[in-house]
Write a structure and sequence with these properties.
With 72 residues, the chain is mainly alpha-helical. The chain has three helices and no strands. The chain has two domains: 29 residues; 33 residues. It starts with a helix and ends in an 8-residue tail after the last helix.
């Protein structure tokens, strides 16, 4: 890296800063993730709403159970 920075006539610190800025600017914005366009789509489907509620209830029931032996 030091040699590459020298060939470009810039300090190593500036070279690294520029590389990091370039890398970070290419990362997708979390709001731009492809799956995000489907977020909330189930709210308009009564069957999906019922299924999600059923799943949520199962999760709640299972996580409410405390196994005391595991905490000793």
């Amino acid at each position: 890296m030091k040699a590459t920075a020298a060939r470009q006539g810039i300090r190593l610190k500036d070279y690294i800063t520029e590389a990091l800025q370039d890398k970070l600017s290419k990362r997708p914005n979390p709001a731009e993730k492809p799956w995000m366009k489907f977020a909330g789509i189930a709210a308009h489907d009564p069957e999906m709403v019922a299924e999600l509620k059923r799943i949520e209830q199962l999760v709640d029931e299972n996580f409410e159970q405390i196994e005391e032996e595991e905490w000793k």
